[in-house]
Amino acid sequence: MPRVLKPDSPAVATKVFARAEPCPLDVMFGAPEAVLGHTDLHPALTLPVSWLGGEEIECLFPETNPIGIAHGCAVRMAGELMVGCAIQPIGSSIRIAARDLYARIIAATLGHQLYRVWNYVPQINATSAGVENYQAFCAGRAESFELALGPGFKRRLPSASAVGCGGDSLVAVFAAGRATPRHIENPEQVPAYEYPREHGPKPPSFSRASVVLADGRKWVFVSGTAAIKGHHTVAPDALEPQLACTLDNLRIVGRAAGLGRELGRGSRYRRFLKVYVRHATDYPAVRAYLERELLQSGDRVIYLHADICRSALQVEVELTAVETD
Ligand code: 3EB
Questions:
Q1: How many domains, in total, are found in the chain?
Q2: 0.85 exceeded by pTM
């Protein structure tokens, strides 16, 4: 793994921020805690999530230019997309930390629409004071969206993923822009923002996919997708039927997002996938299944060992598809 330097090293700050040429925003895995810093050449975020296989570096945005730090978020421009990362120490309350994290992200992207957020939540399935950490995270996130966007906030929720990580901080990576996106729902799933109370005090704040034109290319951000129909977990704890259900949901959302019947396979989309596997021992089976049913050569896939937001879910898959020339 490339060496990561702390962001507060002045030598690094001048060296990197003085670079005139655009450079990639790299996200890497396998660190003991979240670090927002720089490799020898690039800005980089390393995450406390174990890497299982596939690509070692997540690089959705190969050409970015720095804007600076806004509300504690490191923000860059990738053409017309604004991309950023933020780390929020949890302190005594995940709910308050999530509220603060989202207040900062919403402030940093003022005048822009949020398209996609990748969330990483420590001990996501642990419970404190009778509420799961994921549910506390959802409550704080919802409170900030409601406060900032008002009563119509549900129609403006970005696509997202939220998975477990190590360390003691919430981490979010986000993409936003000035163009208005189309947010998409899955008719076979209750919109997450309408999930009933049994899943937590406030429902999750995300749409199933977001589609937007940036720099003349279509970007399709498909949220983390798992084995949920209606609002119920399908085949709790069972890997194979959950993979089948996940793929079915991905295809439904992909079709609605304009990717066609096979999630943009064999068309002019570059495809980036992340696969979150709860039990590392399932990795070979998950990979074999996806290679058989979904993947084609040229797909950039990252397999990670991570807890999923509901403890009965074994696997989650996300896709970002970018139109090529
Ligand atoms: C689900 O469909 C599964 O809380 O941001 C997927 C994508 C899931 C995003 C989030 C949660 C989130 O409810 C979990």
A1: 1
A2: yes
